[in-house]
Amino acid sequence: MGSGRLSVYAMVLRAALIGVAASWSGAALAGSMITGGLTSQPIGHFEFCRANPGECAIRSVDRGPQRISAALWQAIQAINVDVNQAVTPMNDIDVFGKDEVWSYPNGVGDCEDYVLEKRRLLHRRGIDYSNILITVVRKRDGEGHAVLTLRTSDGDFILDNLTDEIRTWDHTGYRFLKRQSSAHTGRWVSLRDEPNTLVGSVKK
Question: What's the CATH number where 136 sits?
Answer without folding.
Answer: 3.10.620
